[in-house]
Here is the input.
Amino acid sequence: MTYSDDFLRRILKRTRTVAIVGVSANPVRPSYFVARYLGLKAFRVIPVNPGLAGQVLLGETVYGDLSEIPGDVDMVDIFRRSDAVPPIVDAALARWPNLQTIWMQIGVEHEEAAAKAQARGVDVIQNRCPKIEYQRLFGELRMGGFSTGTISSRL
Here is the structure.
């Protein structure tokens, strides 16, 4: 799947609240690291993990299921195996009629679930990481020695 930089940038700019399904409390796990990073970038991150429900992680209550989250979210970020995606997408679409984005992490893809969300007008990203894309598109990867192809006047 290929996504234009403009498409990814638009999604990341408009998103304020992200529900991360499958987040871990272990700080060395990618899901924790991504949640922490997005929180540091002023996204509100709502953790979802049934094994941690009721606990507080990164300053937010952990929910066991998307249906338990009060209020709206702009994006659902999925850190689960590909075969677990359809019920997560179904729950997200049922919970938020105005959901903007379903984002599936690196290695996570499900064409049927993606098509279902897209048919409802939801933007879908598969097999990508919002943290990596944010860093790449907003010039942060070059600070670590990576050439991103993005020109910035920031030093």
The chain has a mean pLDDT of 93. The beta strands are 17-21, 44-48, 56-57, 60-61, 75-78, 101-104, 123-125.
